[in-house]
C-alpha cells in the first residue's frame, strides 16, 4: 500500500464528491433559475401592492332596506291610465251641397256656433244649418253694392254674428230677430275686403283683419247704428292679408 497517497474514506461526512462537468452545469442553472424566480416573486409582490390601492380591505356593508320587501309606499306614483284611441272616420258623416261657394284662400265663409248651428255663405246669401235636426234656413242676402261676403264669425253667445264685406265694412246682426244691429266703419279703416273676424271671450271686442294687411280692434260697447264707429287699436306691421 502506497503511503504517499491519502486513503479516501467513504464514511467521512465532510468530504464532498468530486466535481464533474455535468454537476457544474446543473449547479449553474440552479443558481440562475433561483435568481429568476426571486425576481418574479418581487415583481408579483410589487404588482400586488399597487392593486391593493383599489381593493377593499373588508367587504362593503350590506345595504339597509328602508322598507321591507313587498311593502308599497303611499306616495308611489300611480300608473297613468292609457288614453283611448280616437276613431277617425274614413268617410264624411254627412255631405252638404254648397253651390256658389267662393273658392278663395283668404276668405272665411263658414263658422260653427256654440248653439250647434253652422252658418255658410253661398254667393251673397247667408244660410243656417242646424245640426240637431238638419234643418236649413236663410238669414239674409247682401246687395251687390256691399257684397260679396268675405268673412263671418259667431259670437260666443250663439246669437250674434259678425259679417265682413268686400266693401271694407263689418256688419253686426242678431240671428234670432234677423236684423242688423250696426255697421263698423271708420275713417282710415280697412281699404280692402275684410277676410278675418274674431270675437273676444267677453263679446265686448271684435278683431277684424283685411287683405290690406291691417288689423282693427273694435269696442262693441261704443258701436252705434246711427254713426260711424272708430276702432280702438290698429295693428299694421303684418306682411300678408289677415
TrEMBL record:
Transmembrane segments: none annotated. The keyword Transcription does not apply. PROSITE patterns: WD_REPEATS_1, WD_REPEATS_2, WD_REPEATS_REGION. Residues 1-32 are annotated as: Disordered. Component of the anaphase promoting complex/cyclosome (APC/C), a cell cycle-regulated E3 ubiquitin-protein ligase complex that controls progression through mitosis and the G1 phase of the cell cycle. PANTHER family: CELL DIVISION CYCLE 20 CDC20 FIZZY -RELATED, FI02843P. This is Cell division cycle 20.2, cofactor of APC complex-like.
